[in-house]
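User: Fold this; tokens only.

Assistant: Input:
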Amino acid sequence: MSSANEIRRVEILMFDGVDELDIVAPFEILASAGFDAELVTLNDRPRVTGAHGMTVTPHGTLGPRPDVLVVPGGRWASKAPDSAWGEVQRGDIPRAIAERHAAGSIVAGVCTGGMLIAASGILRGRPAGTHRSALDDLRGYGVDVRPEARVVDDGDVLTSGGVTSGIDLALHVIERAHGRDAA
């Protein structure tokens, strides 16, 4: 597992239906703080279409062991194929999350990205948060749900709840790596 002082490479995993704020806010904040931040996809593809129609060109594909893997959410409540829920149904992203976590990556969920992490199996019995619309679903994965928390830090897994929680999560990563004054 990456220690807080070793955090340098951050990969933000995108998929069709991702909430744009869940990727853009952490990317901008972490890149501005000097982290090597990249927007990535699971498989090589030219673009991703977000929940509100924004198209984003990825920097590349998910590496085998980023220091921090940021998992955004998107359109969970819609239960649409192009959403975090759809990605849980397919299972590829949850498997990739579990593999990166096992390899030592810190995994950080933004909003309903916590549901993708829960589906990977690594949140069972652990504290976590997500968007209020998915709290019952999160409990269904055997998670110790913290509904009022903006950011839950359980060492090698971080989660955040709420639409703008990617900002809070990114600032928390900066604080872990460089201290409160830097954040």
